[in-house]
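Example 3.2
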Amino acid sequence: MMQQLRPIELNLVDELFETSPGYVLDFTNSTYAQFFRREVGVDIYDDAYAIFGGSKGKRLRAFLSVGQPRAIARALTALWEYREIERLGRAQAETVVNAGKRLSAIVERLGGMPLSPFESTIEVGSEQELFPLTRLDRTERQSFRSGFRTAPFNVKQDATHANPVPN
């Protein structure tokens, strides 16, 4: 079995997306399956991803081990967007040092596009902190919170970036 991610990269993925052993963010089995099907085009509950066990965390680890590099890049990007939308919705500070830059390096190495470096200042307590911000409208943020993106993207050209970005 060819390992797509190095052990240190797997540790970062665990730190970013496993909320406790066996769990991935706040997904239920159903929303996890829907998320992977819609965002990556993969049936994460296929037996091919049960090589380490049946939990969501172990299936993710198996996918990261045996999946195609570009599919892994898509999954990591989608998981990052989901995580950031949830984190920003709760006005939580980032707890992982250089999280976006480190994950973006992995995604790019696997053939994906760099993660969006959007930032927005959000007041937390008496201090202002910078939070990475994906530019999704309220409907898209809500559909992510429900477990997967269902709303279509409205794409516009961002003057500061060459790539089209979601509104």
